Amino acid sequence: MSSRAQSLDPIVRDRLVCPQDHGPLLDAGDELYNPRLRVAYRIDADGIPVMLATEARAVDDEEHQRLTSA
Length: 70
Fold this sequence. Notes:
Elements: H1 4-7, H2 10-15, E1 26-28, E2 31-34, E3 39-42, E4 57-58, H3 61-68
Antiparallel strand pairs: 1-2, 2-3, 3-4
């Protein structure tokens, strides 16, 4: 089974950027991750990315290392 990030339409996925710094995002399972700001944006159960800065989740050092060491 693929993750929600992998299930996004490739055209949509290519156009998604961080709403805070307008940079690219990494696929992180059921989230999209901005390693520069260390925030993750969830993808809801319907497969819709929640790209609101106020909804972003902070990522700690350990998780950041795990997400960027791929």
